[in-house]
Design brief:
globular, mainly alpha, 3 helices, single chain
């Protein structure tokens, strides 16, 4: 995701977010964590911290962390 779509960070963030959700639904929480951290970072930098998509990634990241703590 990082190199192939480097010219479009918003698209990168969408792909990373979707991939993280897929990993999460499969119970692969460590993989979901890495992908959602990427998505959140990209969204924060490209869309800003207050954008609804950035906030959605932050919420999903919190859900992943909650699963990893169980």
């Amino acid at each position: 995701i990082k190199s192939r779509f480097s010219a479009d960070p918003v698209l990168q963030s969408e792909l990373a977010h979707s991939l993280a959700e897929a990993w999460f639904s499969l119970g692969r929480y460590q993989k979901a964590l890495a992908a959602m951290e990427l998505a959140l970072g990209l969204r924060t930098r490209s869309l800003g911290a207050d954008d609804r998509r950035t906030l959605h990634s932050a919420f999903k990241l919190a859900q992943i962390h909650a699963q990893l703590d169980n």
